[in-house]
Specification:
Number of domains: 1
Strand order of the largest sheet: 2-1-3-4-5
Order of helices and strands: EHEHEHEHEH
Bound molecules: 5-hydroxymethyluridine-2'-deoxy-5'-monophosphate
Largest sheet: 5 strands, parallel
CATH architecture: 3-Layer(aba) Sandwich
Shape: globular
Strand content: 15-25%
Radius of gyration: 14 Å
CATH class: Alpha Beta
CATH topology: Rossmann fold
Length: 130
């Protein structure tokens, strides 16, 4: 099982530690192709935007499932979700805010969950993989 985890980078890194904790949890279910999203000291200087885009799109194509944490709004995450839905990938979104974008929560192909804590998202993720 190849898992594409999506989370904000240039949109803001407030949840980077949470992404790392979620990635650590989902690793028991397969290979997380985008483990770098949880890196606290993420450096993107040595790679061009074109390389980032093409690499991530290839991982998206390769993936069996998309899991996105969308609490911190990110253009890149929204773009990945749209491309993933077009590729008919099973897509799951999680947010702690009262609402997220209607283009995400209103999309019938995306399963969107509100949660409050790391423990709660772990249970929801376990349910998805079981
Ligand atoms: O350096 C990067 N590496 C990378 O993999 N991404 C991808 C993965 C994330 O799910 C998403 C984050 O988009 P943004 O940077 O617009 O918040 O884009 C985005 C960047 C920077 O835009």
């Amino acid at each position: 099982m190849k898992i594409y985890f999506s989370g904000s980078i240039r949109g803001g890194r407030d949840d980077a530690k949470l992404y790392a904790d979620i990635i650590e949890h989902i690793k028991q279910y397969g290979e997380v192709l985008t483990e770098h999203i949880g890196q606290m000291d993420l450096q993107e200087n040595e790679i061009t935007d074109r390389q980032i885009h093409d690499q991530d799109l290839n991982w998206l194509i390769e993936s069996d499932i998309i899991i996105a944490e969308v609490t911190v709004p990110s253009l890149g995450v929204g773009y990945e979700l749209g491309r993933g839905v077009e590729m008919k990938k099973p897509t799951y979104c999680f947010h702690r805010t009262p609402q997220t974008s209607a283009m995400v929560s209103g999309c019938p192909e995306i399963k969107t969950y509100h949660y409050e804590s790391l423990d709660e998202i772990k249970v929801l993720i376990d349910q998805i993989f079981q």
